[in-house]
Automatic annotation (TrEMBL):
Keyword Transferase: no
Region named Disordered: 1-32
High-level lineage: Bacteria, Pseudomonadati, Bacteroidota, Cytophagia, Cytophagales
Family classification: Belongs to the ParB family.
Domain ParB-like N-terminal residues, every copy: 44-134
Pfam families: HTH_ParB (PF17762), ParB_C (PF23552), ParB_N (PF02195)
Keyword field contains Nucleotide-binding: no
Protein name: Chromosome partitioning protein ParB
Organism whose genome encodes this protein: Marivirga lumbricoides
InterPro entries: Chromosome_partition/occlusion, HTH_ParB/Spo0J, ParB/RepB/Spo0J, ParB/Sulfiredoxin_sf, ParB_dimer_C, ParB_N
Alphabetical list of PANTHER family matching this protein: CHROMOSOME-PARTITIONING PROTEIN PARB-RELATED
Domain of life: Bacteria
NCBIfam families linked to this entry: parB_part
Length: 304
């Protein structure tokens, strides 16, 4: 009975790119994803000092403590997943993926490292590096959005092609790309994970930038849930917030108004007076300066 063909993985992620090419099936995955990327050989041990960094690497920071932990693991277990490089010459290679593993291997004192060797041009290098970066689990929403944008512009991909590459549908890709239209303050909050993707998706439905920032600040200051932000945005989009602003203020009773006027006259400033249905409330006496405050204190006969 003929052997069953392996099921094609969902999406066109990096997994298909970087699989071991020991079998023709796995090798064909690479050919399907990047027809022009040739496999030079199976896994090889190559000298680490012959490997150049990837100039298209989208990551700019690697945690030192995490690298040290990985180096300790490599000393004990060795390299479990080979890196992937492209061949520049007989004794020169350039990283496609696996910079953390390479750096940690240097820390661990390794002289050689297992690697898949590919032939790829600059655009393919960039695309593979970006896709590998997107597969990381700890990316923030803005890092994903910027990587998507680079794949569209620098790799000349359409949104449908991008979705296939990263295993996401077009709606998800578009939701990330829309984040790039948000004001810098909100983008920074997303980078620092002070704001969630859900919050940002709600805020971006507001066209006015000032109102976006108002909702953002309110969200941060009051620690609003995504559902509350969605409701707040809905009111703004439908104009209900404007209706609330236009709503007439509740008139205070005549007796209270009379007291307010007398207080304002006595203190020489507009006094605020609030009284609820249970005759509870507050009095606010504003002042313009330290001297003005001392004047009011004298009228109150307060000795400090």
């Amino acid at each position: 009975m003929a052997a069953k063909k392996p099921r094609k993985a969902l999406g066109r992620g990096l997994g298909a790119l970087l699989q071991d090419s020991e079998t023709s099936n796995k090798s064909s995955n690479i050919e399907r994803e990047f027809p022009d990327v040739e496999s030079v050989s199976n896994i090889n041990e190559i000298p680490i000092n012959q490997i150049e960094v990837n100039p298209f690497q989208p990551r700019s920071h690697f945690d030192k403590e995490a690298l040290d932990e990985l180096a300790d693991s490599i000393k004990t277990q060795g390299i479990i997943q080979p890196i992937t490089v492209r061949k520049l010459s007989d004794d020169s290679y350039q990283l496609i993926s696996g910079e953390r593993r390479t750096q940690a291997s240097k820390i661990a004192g390794l002289k050689t490292i297992p690697a898949y060797i590919r032939l790829a041009n600059d655009q393919q290098m960039l695309e593979m590096a970006l896709i590998e970066n997107i597969q990381r689990e700890n990316l923030n929403a803005m890092e994903i959005a910027m990587s998507y944008q680079r794949l569209l512009t620098e790799c000349d991909l359409k949104q449908e092609q991008l979705g296939e590459r990263v295993g996401k549908n077009r709606t998800t890709v578009n939701n990330y790309l829309r984040l790039l239209k948000l004001p810098p303050d909100i983008q920074l909050a997303l980078k620092e994970k002070k704001l969630s993707m859900g919050h940002a998706r709600a805020i971006i439905n507001i066209e006015d930038v000032d109102k976006q920032l108002d909702v953002f600040k309110k969200t941060i200051n009051e620690d609003l849930s995504v559902r509350k932000v969605e409701a707040l945005v809905r009111d703004i989009v439908t104009g209900k917030d404007a209706d609330k602003e236009k709503a007439p203020k509740k008139e205070i009773p005549y007796e209270a108004k009379n007291v307010q006027n007398k207080l304002s006259s006595h203190f020489g400033t507009k006094v605020g007076l609030k009284i609820d249905d249970k005759n509870k409330g507050e009095i606010k006496i504003p002042f313009l300066s330290k001297d003005d405050l001392n004047r009011i204190l004298d009228l109150l006969d307060v000795d400090l």
